[in-house]
Automatic annotation (TrEMBL):
One of its GO terms (cellular component) is cytoplasm. Its cofactor is FAD. This is FAD-dependent pyridine nucleotide-disulfide oxidoreductase. Residues 424-473 are annotated as: Disordered. One of its GO terms (molecular function) is oxidoreductase activity, acting on NAD(P)H.
Length: 473
């Protein structure tokens, strides 16, 4: 359904009523769309902000109910909350809901995001004292338990969420052990070289950090309360709280048998956020945005990127919404450069680009020992990412280097540039090894990936010259 000016004005459904869904709805109205608009969400709450849940909500500084996102305008939308979508009927252009309702659409935006990866043993996951941290209810429940001063907390997985939870525990004066299957915390997101810095920091703050270690089993008492954890190194810990921080699972199950290019890695779309079907044909009426999307980024060899972060959700949802209603000749490409941030153990950590693509890293400003530095990541001789620790203002310069595909290592002649520059292996674990999400990662070749890149990862993994562990920054 198009108006005389070529713009769309039929019924739009947004499946996913979180940050990306809200931003898409706002953009649709800002773009002049005045047709019927329906938002479907599996949680009973209006959109809220997730990053504070593992930080200020756990400390008690911010109540969980104060994380609701402001809505700057009347969206004139129908909200169907607390009822998940269970199936997409592409032929009939309808969404099936868990309460058996069928909602028809003319255009659809998939913004179902991710959920916390659960503990693999359901009976152990059900023990009183075992938590994940993803939803508003998760944050409220875990805050309540931490406020009761448990004797010993176990955090399973040392990615950003697990590390932030551990930081909060130490801030509250609680005893905490962190287990991580990789050689260092944050290794899956920032590489082992940067992870060694995080490891020293966590131990300096009193965290009992166990790297190269997994949790084999969680044990409960006769009343069903968590009491012990059995580790792969043979230790048995007496614990009364376990926070499972094993990364995220993309919410794509409802798309099974829908005939789309969707799997556990996400929903594949082109640069304009239009979804590919199972025959690799782009659709004009289905779009995707946020954590659940995979799209080809022109700066990263056409690899299909999956990004689990606030900034990308906002940017991609805005682009998708614009493209849903604009005239075909007005479509825009989603070229957002991934970025993320974290506050933990007294550090402000910010990154831009795609660190997980890198094979080398070098400190270009500041001092690691002073916990104030910038590190740049390189892949095949060019800059692909930068990491700033307690130096957030300098990242704009490094983002420009990424966009310009500048050579690695860069020589910026900054007053605080180490001399000489010391390039080391980035030290990313082999795929599937970390116990946490990488935040932003390449998930496989896309249509524009050069042929020589398709087998490059396997070749690097089998090269005997590649060290098994990274050198520290």
């Amino acid at each position: 359904m198009r108006r005389n000016d070529g713009r769309f004005n039929g019924r739009i459904i947004i499946v996913g009523a979180s940050l990306a869904g809200l931003r898409a709805a706002e953009t649709l109205r800002e773009e002049g769309f005045n047709g019927p608009l329906i938002l479907i969400g599996d949680e009973p709450y209006p959109p809220y902000d997730r990053p504070p849940l593992s930080k200020s909500v756990l400390t008690g500084w911010l109540p969980a109910t104060n994380t609701f996102l402001p809505q700057g305008r009347d969206l004139n939308a129908e909200w169907l909350l607390g009822v998940p979508a269970t199936h997409l009927d592409l032929a009939q252009k309808a969404v099936q809901l868990a309460d058996d309702r069928r909602i028809s659409f003319d255009r659809l935006l998939i913004a179902t995001g991710t959920r916390a990866r659960p503990w693999p043993d359901a009976s152990q996951a059900a023990l009183d004292g075992v938590f994940t941290i993803r939803t508003l209810d998760d944050g409220a429940r875990l805050h309540q338990r931490l406020a009761a001063s448990p004797r010993h907390i176990l955090v399973i997985g040392a990615g950003f969420t697990g590390s932030e939870v551990a930081s909060v525990c130490r801030e509250l004066g609680l005893v905490v052990t962190v287990t991580e299957r990789s050689a260092a915390p944050l290794a899956g997101a920032l590489g082992g070289a940067a992870g060694t810095v995080a490891a020293r920091l966590q131990r300096a703050y009193g965290v009992d950090l166990r790297c190269n270690t997994t949790v084999m089993a969680l044990e409960g008492d006769a009343q069903g309360r968590l009491c012990r954890a059995h580790l792969s190194d043979g230790d048995v810990l007496e614990v009364d709280v376990a926070v499972v921080a094993l990364g995220a699972v993309r919410n794509v199950e409802w798309l099974q048998h829908a005939g789309l290019a969707a799997d556990a890695r996400g929903v594949v779309c082109d640069g304009t956020c239009r979804v590919f079907d199972a025959n690799d044909i782009v659709t004009d009426d289905l779009f995707v945005a946020g954590d659940v999307a995979r799209w080809p980024h022109p700066l990263f060899d056409g690899q299909l990127l999956a990004v689990e972060h606030w900034g990308n959700a906002v940017a991609q949802a805005s682009i998708a919404a614009h493209n849903m209603v604009c005239a075909p000749w007005e479509r825009r490409g989603h070229r957002h450069i991934p970025s993320f941030w974290s506050n933990q153990f007294g550090l402000n950590i910010k990154s831009v680009g795609l660190p997980t693509l890198a094979d080398e890293v070098v400190v270009t400003q500041g001092s690691v020992s002073e916990r104030r530095f910038v590190a740049v990541y390189g892949h095949k001789g060019r800059v692909v990412a930068a990491l700033a620790v307690n130096m957030p203002r300098g990242l704009d310069v490094y983002e420009a280097l990424i966009e310009q595909k500048r050579s690695f290592p860069p020589h910026l002649n900054a007053p605080d540039e180490p001399k000489p520059l010391r390039v080391v292996a980035a030290g990313f674990p082999v795929p599937g090894q970390p116990t946490h999400s990488p935040i932003a990662t390449a998930t496989g070749p896309g249509p524009s990936t050069p042929p020589e890149e398709r087998d490059a990862a396997a070749a690097r993994a089998s090269d005997p010259r590649v060290p098994s562990g990274p050198l520290p920054l």
